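Q: My labmate handed me this sequence with no annotations at all. I'd like to see what the chain might look like in three dimensions before we decide whether it's worth expressing. Could you predict it?
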Amino acid sequence: MEPQDRRRILEALLLSSSEPVTAARLGRVVPDTSAREVREDIEALNESYAAEGRGFRIEDVSGGHQLRTLPELARFVQQLEPVPPLRMSRASLETLAIIAYKQPVTRAEIEHVRGVDAGPLLRGLLERRLARIAGHREVPGRPILYATTPRFLEVFGLAGLSDLPTLREIEELLRDRLPDGDDGAESTATSDDGAVALAIEDADAPPQTH
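A: Here is what I predict for the chain of 210 residues:
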C-alpha cells in the first residue's frame, strides 16, 4: 500500500475515534502496516498540516494518538459547541497532583502531605475518573493505593507521566492561576491548557512511569 493511501486511512480512523488510539491498534486496522510505519505516517501528516497551516494536528495523548484542534483555536470551537470546562477546587488539584507525582500512594500519605482529610476529595476524583484504585499496599491493614488514569492524561493533554511539568513550572502556574491561601477557589482545567496548574506542596520524588 502506498504511503498516501495509508495516511488517508489513518486520518479517517482518527477522525472517527473519540478516544486516543495506539499505533499498534491502528497498524492492525490499516492493511500491511506496522506500528513503526503508523508513527512515521503520523509525523508526516503533522508536517503537512503545519506546512498547510491547518487548524488541527495529531497529538500523542494517554499512550495513543488523537486528532485535536490547535489550542489557539479553542475559543472558536467553544462557540460552536460549548463544552463545560472541568472545574476543580485548589484542594482537589493539590490532591490530584500528589497522586500524580507519588503514585501509587495511600490516603494516609496524601493526608500527611496536605494535613487534612482527603476522603471526600478522593471520592470526587474517582467519580471523575481522574484517579483510580491501584490495589493495596502489602503492609498491615493493606491500605488502598491510588493512581492516575488514562482519562487524567487525556484531560491534561499528556502523552505520559514523564510529561508532567516540573515543580518549578507548577509553582509558576500556581502564581498565575490560583489565588494564595484560597483552598476553595476553583481552577479550570481543559485539554487545551496542556500542562495546567497542578498544585503540590511536598513532592521530593520524581514521577514514576509505568
